Amino acid sequence: MADSPDTGATGPVAETPMPGSSSGSSSTPRRVPPRAGTRKPKPQEESRSSALGELFAPVAGFGVTFATMFRKVATEEYPEVKRPTEARFHGLHQLNRHPDGLEKCIGCELCAWACPADAILVEGASNDDSEGGGGRYSPGERYGRVYQINYLRCIFCGLCIEACPTRALTMTNFYELADNNRADLIFTKDQLLAPIQEGMLPAPHPMVDGMEERDYYRGKVARSTPEQQTWVTDHGAAGDDTTGAAGATAAGEVVR
To answer: N or C: more exposed end of the chain, with fewer CB within 10 A?
Structure first.
């Protein structure tokens, strides 16, 4: 056999197996060269960087302080100056009325069932506008005779107003509810009811003649009628039952 030509190699050469070769012996793994630009840092460089970090660490901490020292202070002079709340702010609850003054709450207690903090107490009763009855407070069959919200428990999540089927319960923008007496933070129905507006009459009084319950929710009732005003005058109805001080302050700021 003829001698193989000299390639100039001084040592054994590792052969890379060709694809598809069926040799039974294990092939030698191919060496992968290191990536360009990667270099293991030397111990001297590591010690130098750690020393610089320890030197400037206190200065970096005070950097935030120095950056805010010369900024304009945005202090609000509360309660003299109050920042307006957002349009959908969750504040004090409000029980709304129909345009003629009848209450929208039908005493279904769905708001109490939806409350995750168990802060709402509702007791419904039947409307009775017959002779000698208790009177009519809402269109339809029932109304909320007792309505209480415990603001020591309320988390202002808004689930109660989402559960209300008649849009009777909404939330206002009033948020100043702090008090030094726990009993005063349990709001009753007379504190939560919306105040009497123009064209409304305080309940109880009969519905508008010729109207049914569904007509109220369709917006067919615009205000009280002379017949209702005469009935209230003759029967000496409840009189002025506007909300308390907190509810009256936020009466026109319904957001949901």
So the answer is: N
